[in-house]
Amino acid sequence: MSACDLCPRQCGADRANGEAGLCHVGDTILIASAAPHHFEEPPISGTKGSGTIFFAGCSLSCLYCQNQAISRGAVGRAVDEDGLARMMLSLADTGVHNLNLVTATHYTDRVARVLTHIKPQLKIPVVWNSSGYERPETLRLLEGLIDIYLPDFKYVSPTLSAAYSNAPDYCRYATAAIAEMYRQVGPVSFDKDGILQRGLVVRHLVLPDCREDSMAVLKTLSDTVPTEHVRLSLLRQYTPDFAPRSAPKNLLRRVTTYEYEQVLKRALSLAFDGFKQQKGAATVDYTPDFDV
Predict the structure, then answer these.
(1) Model confidence over 53-87: pLDDT tens digits?
(2) What's the pTM?
(3) Are 263 and 234 in contact (CB under 8 A)?
(4) In a designed cystine with 40, which of 45, 48, 112, 173 is the match (CB 3.0 to 4.6 A)?
(5) Does residue 199 contact residue 148 with C-beta atoms inside 8 Å?
(6) Residue 137 CA to chain centroid, in angstroms?
(7) What pLDDT does residue 2 have?
(8) Helices (H), the chain
(9) What is d(CA 27, CA 113) in angstroms, rounded to the nearest whole number?
(10) pLDDT average, residue stretch 121-125
(11) What is the pLDDT of residue 75?
(12) How far apart (Å, rounded) are the C-alpha atoms in residues 120 and 20?
């Protein structure tokens, strides 16, 4: 990490000597939360919850980020690799369905070392829960260590991704990353209780006044991976509570029923299987509470 190139930013920060990268963190692993979580997709949360570890920092800069309390600064509990390993094993021992690593891209090399050490002791799947803005070269460090990939696919338009996440190259990287994820884990598979054990679930958050780009995302995704072997999670949970008042006007309102239903119709026409959300999902009540 002396010249960090883990994420697509490839900012070259000397994180090994404490310099913060564009992800906002240096070499210290910062954990904002580690606990069972019950609001993931049904086959991930199940009845026992998903053992979720939220890592502080993020390589994106989304205007509307609901986790901005931890994504934009060096906050949280500092742990070394041994401490992270103990945290993972302890959380797995609570009876959760899986170990869910949220926004760990900027720690990929260190997480890979930890998982290599403890994977034989884990009896549950490991989930990589990310923004989708990742380098395939970095994801290859995780091959054989991750059972379930749970990435976002946010945009196709470079104009939108530049304006909303400061990442005009988002689609190029997300498409390549998702293809690499599918190569590693293959088709979805479930246990007898319908809990996901392996595979790829792609999330897409429908944004206000962006339904045409949402449809382009779905078409690009269907051209990248076989729709019958993955699952789509079509999110309606956008809420303007986290966007600054200076944000574009469309981000200061919720998604309409018409907008969401049009995107859902497109998903069905492309033969996606997966999960949809009701209107009531667009509330801050489902936002994790970080005590940082």
Answers:
(1) 999 999 998 999 999 889 987 789 999 999 999 99
(2) 0.96
(3) yes
(4) 45
(5) yes
(6) 18
(7) 80
(8) 42-45, 68-71, 81-92, 108-118, 136-139, 158-165, 170-185, 211-224, 257-269
(9) 14
(10) 97
(11) 84
(12) 33
Q: Is the pLDDT of residue 286 over 70?
A: no
Tokens of 5: 């190139």
User: Residue written as tokens 């990353």?
Assistant: 177
